Amino acid sequence: MHKDHSLEAHVPVHDRHESTYYEKRTYAIQALLIEKGIITADEVRRAVEDMDSRTPALGARVVARAWVDPAFKARLLSDAKAAVAELGIDVSPLSVLVAVENTEKVHHVVVCTLCSCYPRSILGLPPDWYKSLNYRSRVVADPRGVLKEFGLELDPDVEVRVLDSTADMRYLVIPARPPGTENMSEEELAGLVTRDSMIGVAKARNPGGS
Amino acid sequence: MTKFKPGDRVRIRVGSPPGHFRTPAYIQGKVGIIKTIHGLFGNPESLAYGGDGLPKQVLYQVCFDQTQVWEKYKGSSKDKLLIDIYEHWLEPA
To answer: Which residue has the higher pLDDT, B39 or B1?
Structure first.
């Protein structure tokens, strides 16, 4: 018996999650594909592992580079996929990446009203709210109201542009560089670039904390 | 060769063909302006069912004034909606 590890202190872990229709269907198709030798279980595992390794930190590196290097920003705005590849980020799974810039006068926010299209290669998996019917149906019709719920109140003079990614384009928002960051390194700047600021529901963090 | 060029006024066709299509109902029948020509892309209405997606369709980014899309839009008259639409869903307006 282990005396140093009280078993009583642990709540047993039970997988009480009941599979949904689509989960069951996915597992059934996966099992069939493996059984027929079309894919292997290891390939599935590797694909999941690759997806899980992609996080908003990749996008943050891209944005920080754009903030410090105007020539890179210009290339990012004209051909985002090629510019991202310059940083050694694997963009092969991406169809077409389009970068848009938020400024004092224009604010972009991204949605996919049809499903959950998202630049996964550089931001990882989308947050649950991005896939929710609530966000998808409301941000397109009342972006200012939805942004306010996220804590972002935009001046009436700002032009709000909603990007509905209905097709092959994936959109990356380059948030505005916060004031007071002139002396920060590229790496420090990347720490200010959050996932939500690259979707457009928030601004980049201020160096003070918020 | 594309049917439309940036600046052209287009109306989004109204329709709900059987199967998968990627033109949201809320934008159908609305009039916007071509902003960008993205290029040629496989037709998702075919690709969704394992088809070859041919002939490829020109994909455009179409820009709408939000106040034209939503009758009761609460926001600035400058606000825009940008949406990607395949050529076969567009007609001159």
So the answer is: B39
Domains and CATH numbers, chain A: 21-52 (no CATH), 54-199 (3.90.330.10)
Q: How many CB pairs under 8 A join A and B?
A: 75
Give the chain B residue nearest A136 (alpha carbons): B24
The number of angstroms, rounded, from the C-alpha of A100 to the middle of its chain's C-alpha atoms is 14
Predicted interface score ipTM higher than 0.90: yes
- How distant, in Å, are the alpha carbons of A57, A171, A198, B92 from that of A117? 19, 9, 14, 28
Average pLDDT over all residues of chain A: 93
Q: What share of chain B is helix, strand, coil (3-state, %, to 5)?
A: 15, 35, 50
Residue A117 annotated to the active site = yes
Would you call A115 a catalytic residue per the annotation? yes
- The tens digit of pLDDT for each residue in B78-89 reads 999 999 999 999
Q: Would you say A194 and A205 are in contact if contact means Cβ atoms under 8 Å apart?
A: yes
Q: From the candidates A78, A115, A137, A185, which is the catalytic residue?
A: A115
**Chain A hits for B82, Cβ within 8 Å:** 161-164
Residue A51 burial (CB count, 10 A): 13
